[in-house]
């Protein structure tokens, strides 16, 4: 919905070729291996994201490095990760709701609960604390329909903007990565 509203491309952060391995890895118990797998998928997606941004096309992703790092750290991963400076940096919307609604939504999902899903439910406070270290727009979705949540997100970026002003400053959108200058042909990332 957000991608359509922003006239952006939606990029999967677990690329299609990764899906079969994702299922196999989710059956294993090594949190560092799982974190490394998801980081690999994100770095692969980051190349696609950068390609779109270089072409001036806005991008929306459903999750990015913050989710991978916070979730796996809450589950006990101890890998020291320093993200490279060349990564596209999105503005992020952290969608939250009260616990009763969250439990209701989880119960209503048409998706089998994995071992990892169950484990993360035992570490929700650690995840919440870890997310606090990332800059995000917090959006309370309690009692709101998807259309209402979309309106809230869209209004975050346009409140107070002059009607003819550029209402999409760099870093203003969660999940929409800002356009970046094109690289000179033949150059590569630092």
Strand proportion, as a percent range, falls in 5-15%
The CATH level-2 architecture is identified as: 3-Layer(aba) Sandwich
**End-to-end distance, in Å?**
34 Å
CATH topology: Rossmann fold
- Count up the domains: 1
Kindly report the name of the CATH homologous superfamily: P-loop containing nucleotide triphosphate hydrolases
In angstroms, what is the radius of gyration? 18 Å
Principal-axes geometry comes out as globular
Enumerate the strands of the largest sheet in spatial order, edge to edge or round the barrel.
1-2-5
Low-confidence stretches: 158-190
Structural class: mainly alpha
**If you average the pLDDT, what whole number results?**
82
**Major pleated sheet:** 3 strands, mixed
H/E element sequence: HEHHEHEHHHEHE
What is the level 1 CATH name?
A: Alpha Beta
Number of helices: 8
Query: How many runs of DSSP E, i.e. beta strands?
Result: 5
């Amino acid at each position: 919905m957000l991608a359509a509203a922003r006239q952006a491309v939606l990029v999967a952060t677990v690329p299609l070729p990764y899906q079969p391995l994702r299922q196999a890895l989710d059956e294993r118990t090594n949190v560092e291996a799982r974190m490394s797998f998801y980081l690999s998928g994100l770095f692969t997606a980051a190349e696609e994201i950068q390609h779109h941004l270089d072409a001036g096309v806005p991008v929306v992703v459903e999750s990015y490095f913050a989710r991978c790092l916070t979730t796996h750290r809450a589950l006990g991963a101890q890998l020291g990760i320093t993200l490279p400076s060349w990564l596209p940096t999105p503005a992020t919307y952290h969608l939250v709701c009260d616990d009763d609604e969250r439990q209701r939504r989880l119960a209503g999902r048409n998706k089998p609960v994995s071992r990892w899903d169950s484990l993360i439910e035992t570490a929700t406070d650690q995840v919440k604390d870890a997310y606090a270290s990332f800059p995000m727009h917090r959006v309370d979705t309690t009692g709101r329909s998807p259309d209402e949540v979309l309106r809230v997100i869209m209004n975050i970026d346009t409140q107070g903007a002059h009607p003819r002003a550029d209402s999409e400053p760099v870093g203003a959108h969660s999940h929409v990565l800002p356009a970046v200058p094109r690289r000179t042909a033949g150059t590569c990332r630092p």
